[in-house]
Structure formats: C-alpha cells, structure tokens
Specification:
270 residues
Length: 270
C-alpha cells in the first residue's frame, strides 16, 4: 500500500481509524482503503451513517454560531477529527474575527491535517492529546497560549464521547474539564444512541460490532446516560434533543430519518 504524502510516517496505514472513517462518511479524501472498507461494512447494517455524520457537523456549526451570539470568543474542540469544510475555526472566526480555537485529537493524521490547515492562523492551534487526560489538554502550550480559562469557553465534544468506554470514566474527565471552565462557559455535545435510529437495535448492533472488530468500540448510551454528561450545567433550550431538533435552520421534518439518531445539547456553567 502506497503512503500518500499527507500521511505521517509514524502511523500504520493498514489499521482503520475512527477519524478517517468519519472523514470518509463526510466525503473527505484523507482516508485509506482500510478505512473505507470498515465504513462500507458498518453501512451494510446502518446505511445512514454518512447522514448521521452530516447531522453532527450541522449541529456543531449551529451551536458554534449560538456560542458566538452569546459573546463567547474561545473554543476548545476535543476529538476534533480531520478538518473538513466548515470547521469550528471557520465558523467562529467568520462570525467573530479574532475568535480563538484549539483543536485536540489523539489521531496523528487529524493532528497533522489540523496543523496544515491552520498555518498562518495565529488565533488557532492544535494539541495531540486524549480526552481521557484532561490535565494534559489544559496544561498544553496551545491551550495556555490561546485560551484564557478565566473567561467563558465553548467546550465541544461532538461525536467523541461514544468512543470512550465507561471503564475509562468519561464522566470524571468531563467533570475535570467543567471545573476548569469559567462561569458562563458552554458545553456543546453530541452522542450516538440506539434511540432515534430508524432500524431495529439488533440491526444497528451490526454496525457497532464493526467498530468493536477494529478495536474502537462504539458505546451506545441512553438519553439518560448522555444527560449525565451535563451535570453541573444548566441546559440551554431546547435541552437534550435529536440533532436536527436543536435550534434548526430548516424544518426538521424535511430531514433524513437517520439524522435523528443520537442526541445533541448545549449546557451553560453557572
């Protein structure tokens, strides 16, 4: 298999990656045949996966614009993935020039691409780190240099928490991040769930098994389990809802049924 110029030498291009699979769902070009093969296998069970990925991105853009309208000018996007058109820094900085954005991901391809996309952008940076290690994120040079934790921050966790097993205690990681944020900060979150998928759960489980096979388990949580991530936050209207129902730009009834798979919400620290 030939290694493209954009692929860091350190990565094994024979092993699928969730961020590259997601890039494929979104129509991106930074993925390998091994990623596309895993995506095809998952889509045999859950053909709407690209639509679910697009609904996540659309929520992210609406929520970032909402945060800017609320006066927030700092964004910390953990599990940011491979940059595609309409990323956080593009949305935030076009709405508010000078807005500061830090991307965090542990996938070397995602980090390398973020660095390439951000060349010349003094108000954005990238951190190679893992959501499960909040201290490493908060003490990183990019966060220390770009984010003032004494002022409100928008913390984005879009389509990432469902890749963190309960054994890794994502609730504690989130509590640690929340406690580091100033009052008036926002948590912007989406999460996969069997609730809302327009298929029997047994069929959707086939797609979950594909992720298990590539050693990136997809943890499907209930609405109540997802709501627990917002402990210590006041929910912003309309609360924790299917993605197209969160402050929609267009009529939700016009959406593809798969877009309603999983939940989205925004919370504000007191």
């Amino acid at each position: 298999m030939e290694r493209p110029a954009w692929a860091p030498r350190s990565i094994d291009i024979s092993v699928p990656s969730v961020s590259r699979i997601y890039d494929h769902y979104l129509g991106g070009s930074h993925n390998f045949e091994v990623d596309r093969e895993a995506a095809r296998r998952a889509m045999e069970f859950l053909p709407g996966l690209p639509r679910i990925a697009q609904a996540n991105r659309a929520f992210m853009r609406r929520a970032v614009r909402f945060a800017v309208d609320e006066g927030i000018t700092q964004f910390l996007d953990i599990g940011s993935g491979i940059p595609t058109f309409g990323n956080v820094h593009e949305v935030a900085q076009s709405a508010r020039p000078g807005a500061r954005v830090v991307y965090v991901d542990h996938d070397p391809v995602a980090v390398a691409h973020s660095e390439a996309v951000l060349v010349g952008n003094a108000d954005a940076g990238v951190v190679p780190a893992d959501l499960r290690k909040p201290r490493e994120i908060l003490s990183s040079p990019a966060v220390q240099g770009l984010i003032d934790l004494n002022r409100p921050v928008a913390l984005l966790l879009v389509a990432i928490l469902h890749f963190v097993d309960d054994a890794d205690d994502p609730y504690s990681a989130l509590a640690e991040l929340r406690d580091a944020l100033a009052p008036g900060s926002l948590l912007l979150l989406t999460h996969a769930s069997y609730e809302g998928i327009p298929l029997p759960p047994q069929r959707a489980e086939g797609a979950v098994d594909v992720y298990k096979d590539i050693r990136h388990p997809l943890i499907m949580r209930s609405r109540d389990e997802i709501a627990r991530f917002f402990e210590g936050y006041d929910m912003v209207e309309p609360g924790l809802v299917p993605m197209p129902n969160w402050r929609p730009d267009t009529a939700p009834e016009d959406e593809d049924p798969y877009a309603f798979s999983g939940f989205a919400g925004v919370g504000r620290t007191a």
